[in-house]
Amino acid sequence: MPAARRFAAFSAYAASKHAVVGLTEALALEGKPHGIRVNAIAPGAVRWPMSTAIGLSPQTMPEAIVPTVEFLFDRACSAALTGTTVEIHCNAE
User: Fold this and answer.
1) What ranges make up the beta strands (E) of 34-77?
2) What pLDDT, in 10s, does the model give residues 7-49?
3) Least crowded by CB within 10 Å, which of 15, 47, 60, 68?
4) CA torsion sign, 43 to 45 to 51 to 54?
5) Which of 52, 45, 65, 55 is nearest to 1 (CA)?
6) Do residues 45 and 51 touch, judged by C-beta distance below 8 A?
7) The whole model's pTM is what?
8) Residue 73 a catalytic site member
9) Does domain 11-87 have CATH number 3.40.50.720?
10) Contact criterion met (CB below 8 Å) for 30 and 75
11) Sequence-distant (≥ 6) Cβ neighbours of residue 85 within 8 angstroms
12) What 3-state class would DSSP assign to 85?
């Protein structure tokens, strides 16, 4: 389902999310000659007090993001990865 349908009236959120993706790609290109990798993690809606306060019931818990962070920090695993946005969406079991 397109993000606009999931998050109606969240145009500023959508614009800022796309800006982060573009910035990640641009910084990765600029940093590559210097051995600098730039990646982003886009967890979508996370179960957090703010998300529940506005009526969302996301299934992604904050700790679900940790393995992705660990993977990106591990140069042996992710050395070739740069300019990428990793999306994380967890579903209820």
Assistant:
1) 40-42
2) 566 788 889 989 999 999 999 999 999 999 999 999 877 888 8
3) 15
4) positive
5) 45
6) yes
7) 0.77
8) no
9) yes
10) no
11) 20, 21, 24, 39, 40, 41, 42
12) strand
